[in-house]
Amino acid sequence: MSPIPRPKLPIHRLLGISLACFFAAGLLAYHSLKTPSQVTTKTTPTQPRSEATTAPLASSAGSPTPTPTLSPAERQAKYGPCVYLPVLMFHHVNTTEAATAGKYTSLNVTPEYLQADLSYLTSRGYTIVSVTALADFFENGTPIAKKSVILTFDDGYQDFVSQAAPILEAAQASATLFVPTGLIDNPPTYATWGQLQSLPTNLFYFGNHTWSHKAAGGDVKIETYEITTADTQLNDHSMNAAKIFAYPYGTPSKVDQDVLASLSYSIAFTTTHGAWQCKGQRYTLPRIRVGNAPLSAYGL
Predict the structure, then answer these.
(1) What DSSP string describes 65-127?
(2) Are the C-beta atoms of residues 176 and 208 closer than 8 Å to each other?
(3) 144 contacts 86 by C-beta, under 8 angstroms
(4) SS percent in the chain: helix, strand, coil, step 5
(5) How would DSSP label each residue in 252-269?
(6) Is the peptide bond between 3 and the residue preceding it cis, with omega within 30 degrees of 0?
(7) What distance in Å separates the CA atoms of residue 287 and residue 276, rounded to the nearest whole number?
(8) What are phi and psi of 153, to 5 degrees?
(9) Could you say which DSSP state residue 190 is in?
(10) Which one of 63, 165, 184, 295 has the fewest CB atoms closer than 10 angstroms to its CB?
(11) Which residues make beta-bridge pairs with 83?
């Protein structure tokens, strides 16, 4: 079979196509000369980066004006009553060798440093108070002594029982352990319910850290389940009298705050750095994360 011949275009069609190509080439050349500010493009939003990886970008217009720091009087007027009360945040307490083997050195404070921290606080005239003191301040106006601090430990790790608790008991230092209840009873990483219940109730308090250590935000049903399930499990073990909460990964959300309010939680901590605790910010309170360095490095 002979190939089908392509139809021949009339001369006026060929001229029309040639002119169209000429004008299209000219238009393309014109746009290539335009500056970026003259061309409008559409972009799709990117996923937000974590706070740890987000850094301010340099600008030819100079650095942006920083948010002004509130004076004590302004802070009291806007969020008060407020109290200056450093809340120190720990995670693992273990030997350097164990932390290296477990790959959590960035979350670890050695037993020697924890002991040194307690000695430092005593020598500098600090008083370690329980987390309930802050709740009483918000609810009843109960004064908190100057140079007071609170100690908090996140995640319910096994080494809190084996390493931190004996040091704290020897110093009669109160501390709060924030517990992701669904991870408890998973040794050797996490403590057991029996171990936590064996700790002296006059020194140690327990707080809600969700059921599965889930980051705040997202679906209302899931967030409600995470917080209420942990709340129920703490109640079942008689470990929820204080009604306190800490956000896993430190970032709060309005959804979580609404759930906490519905369950009558008194306070909730973030990982935002700071030491002023204000009733008007009771569900977004700051803490100070400490590591293997003297407490003087953290402003104490």
Answers:
(1) PPPPPPPHHHHHHHH-SEEE--EEEE-EE--HHHHHHHT-GGGEE-HHHHHHHHHHHHHTT-E
(2) no
(3) no
(4) 40, 15, 40
(5) --HHHHHHHHHTT--EEE
(6) no
(7) 9
(8) -130, 125
(9) B
(10) 63
(11) 277
Element housing 152 (H / E): strand 148-154
pLDDT attached to residue 72 = 83
Whether residue 207 contacts residue 245, with contact meaning beta carbons closer than 8 Å, is answered with yes
**pLDDT recorded at residue 32:** 41
Q: Which residues contact 125 (CB under 8 A, 6 or more apart)?
A: 147
Mean pLDDT by 10 residues, the chain (300 residues): 41 42 43 36 31 31 52 88 97 97 96 98 97 96 96 98 98 98 96 97 96 92 97 96 95 95 97 96 97 95
Rg of the chain's alpha carbons, rounded to an integer? 29
- Amino acid at position 274, single letter: G
Which residue has tokens 């500098």? 124
Q: How far is CA 64 from CA 50, 53, 57, 58, 273, in A?
A: 20, 19, 10, 10, 21
Tokens 């403590």 -> residue: 191
DSSP state of 246: E
pTM: 0.77
Domain boundaries, the chain: 78-298
Nearest of 92, 288, 129 to residue 203 by alpha carbon: 129
The closest alpha carbon to 156, from 189, 125, 127, belongs to 189
Provide CB contacts within 8 A for 171, sequence distance 6+: 118, 122
Chain centre distance of CA 83? 21
**Strand, helix or coil for residue 149:** strand
Compute the residue count for the chain: 300
Q: Which fold has domain 78-298?
A: TIM Barrel (3.20.20)
**What single DSSP character describes residue 62?**
-
Helices 254-262, 220-236: axis angle to 10 degrees equals 40
How does strand 148-154 pair with strand 127-128?
Answer: parallel
Q: Which of 282, 226, 230 is nearest to 255 (CA)?
A: 226
